[in-house]
Amino acid sequence: MPTIKLGYAPTRRSIFSAPDAIKYRNLTRDRLVELGIEFVDITDINEEGLLYDDKDMAKIAEKFKAEKVDGLFLPHCNFGTEYVSAKLAKELGVPVLLWGPLDERPEPNGVRLRDTQCGLFATGKVLRRFRVPFTYMTNCRLSDPIFERGIRDFLAVCNTVKTFRSIRVLQISTRPYDFMTTMCNEGELLEKFNVQLAPIPMPELVDTVKQCKTQHKEEVQSVIEYIQEKMEVKVTGEQVETVAALKVAMAKLREKYGCNAVAIQCWNALQGELGIMPCAANSLLNDEGVPVVCETDIHGAITALMVEAAGMDKSRSFFADWTIRHPDIPNGELLQHCGPWPVSVAKEKPVLGYPLAFDHPGSLTAEAKGGNLTLCRFDGDNGEYSLLLGNAKGTDGPKGMGTYLWIEVENIKRLEDKVVTGPYIHHCVGIHQNIVPILYETCKYIGIKADFYDPIEEDVKAYLRGEDVPSMQ
Q1: Same-domain status, 342 and 422
Q2: N or C: which end of the chain has fewer CB within 10 A?
Q3: How many helices (H) and strands (E) does the chain have?
Q4: What is the pTM for the complete model shown?
Q5: Is residue 152 part of a domain?
Q6: What's the pLDDT tens digit per position in 255-265?
Q7: How far, rounded to the nearest angstrom, does the alpha carbon of residue 258 sit from its chain's CA centroid?
């Protein structure tokens, strides 16, 4: 799993019990250690190891920057000092987790040692004044299940934000002429989100494939053996070699240009040069956690990177078309593509053969596993960007071609309307995990709209508040 490092800045306020604040800073630290969370502490900044004044805030910011923390955790250990917490958060510019331990019963004489909840109210307001987006984990005990879940969800949010802010897509050739849908505004993506493209021409890919066949024979042979083990091969040995060489070539080009995803013009120029479809090669890279998307769909590559990061490497994503309604299930739909889905999402041994709509070999045919899914799509036009997202579940349906999965949603007409009226297209990315809450929180940090295709925003907020998890008494 990806390693995410938190800046641990527990805070107190002088009018409440400092010893009690120190007690809870240590208890919280111990719980993080118990959960295996990597964090940077501030015990070297002052004797208490707490954030509560300006001069310490500057030192803490300097330390956290030097340590390259991916997120900021602000436990309020009594009331908390809201203005230094907000200034630190503003200075760092990373996702912020706001939380405090549940307050105990007042002392017999009426004295309260902490007032943590009240401090959280204050810090939330001041963070808004500073225009700092933040994640709130509900006021709870350290032993409550929602504490562990909230921390781990926040790590996934940090991982997704970190990935989004460092996207670099290897763009292999232009988009297909017929696919105006996959056009993107490269300058705007860079200006708004720091998303970078590394465009290369098709001949560079073709030359690299040829070099791999002669100069990297061992790597190509290793891929051939993997194909023979994992796939039912219905193409010639020469075609299998080309598929393997294409996989190795794309991996080397991705590394050469420092990219974390690939968008390839999968038809028609490639077939004229190599005589194959790239789908199976895409599948092999996808299974290694490197998203490769079809039809030079840059927004699709961005979506896939977000989904992979939100899933914290627990499962692989797949790039799909919305295609046709289910012939028997009213809210059913067919997700399908020529054959680029990872082998790990298939419920049967994939066949390496010919696709549905093309005459060249190199695609996979396999039905994907069912179960619960997240489906989403990052897209935009006219200067506005959003993330379409929601849940679905796999269902039975007629046999298909390519890599495919019949799904069922709550209301297909509502989803259909969302895709048609935009800013989305017929492409989406799916994963066998419920990462909707992670993506929802991520949107606030990257400055785009979370756009649900079902009206589940209140359900997602309830999840983030932990309403589905009972507190320990």
Answers
A1: yes
A2: C
A3: 15, 19
A4: 0.96
A5: no
A6: 999 999 999 99
A7: 19
